[in-house]
Amino acid sequence: MKGKHVAITGPTAGIGRTTSLELAKKGAQLTLLCRSAEKARALGKEIVAAGGLAPHVIVVEMSSLDSVRTAGEQLLAQGKPLDVLLNNAGAINMSRRETVDGFEETLAVNHFAPFLLTGLLLPLLQQAAPGARIVNVASDAHTFVKGMGFDDMQATKNYKTFREYGRSKLANILFTRRLARQLQGQGITVNCLHPGAVATSLGTNNNGIFGKIVPRLLKPFFRTPMQGAETSIYLCSSDEVAGVTGEYFVDCKPRKPKSWGRDDAAADKLWRYTEDCLDYSFPL
Hints:
Elements: E1 5-9, H1 14-25, E2 29-34, H2 37-49, E3 56-59, H3 65-78, E4 84-87, H4 105-128, E5 132-137, H5 161-182, E6 188-194, H6 210-217, H7 225-237, E7 248-250, E8 253-254, H8 264-278
Parallel strand pairs: 1-2, 1-4, 2-3, 4-5, 5-6, 6-7
Antiparallel strand pairs: 7-8
Helix pairs in contact: 1-7, 3-4, 4-5, 5-8
């Protein structure tokens, strides 16, 4: 990874933190996209102490499309080719919340934000091609649902915590498949993965007992931070997957997601829906 530029969302906790540290140890130059500049600075000091390069920090609130756009513009302004984009940040809520843009927050943070950020940073990835990579952290939580549920995408009729989370993770898988098709032959691979990490901050943004029980409820899907980060690190750095694209990985091996995670018609419909919601055309 020496000489490689890697941008990571959600890099200061759980699997994102472990992935950041390990990629930095491999020689990567990191750009940390996160909410807390203070936490990013602390991580930066740890990276340097371990012999890595001092990371660049861009503050971003993934629940705000304007903030995502600003972060993308700041990274573009650097003019440095981007070898790897790791869309790692995620959220889960006990009750329905709306973002400043008026969207259901789980879908907005877990799907809308990485969709927009990836589109904004595509020129930098194209500069690094061939060999550029987009890695999306999805989840086996896509098994919580059996489709996108396009009739109530914003969960205004009925909100269910794990259904909305599962739907957002299914969206990550469908986005990966669709984008991989679109970028075929351009020297940019797109893959997604099921991670798994016990020591994750996912869900701790919720007040009260929910913030404590979410990690326990998700325990069947999570392990240790290092185990959880292994597949992210692998997809970001391994020569073994240099030419692999459009796949879903578990334990560093490709695995078929559920049939609704292989529904290309649904992937196309989700793509159009996302562009309409964001009033944004992906630059392809």
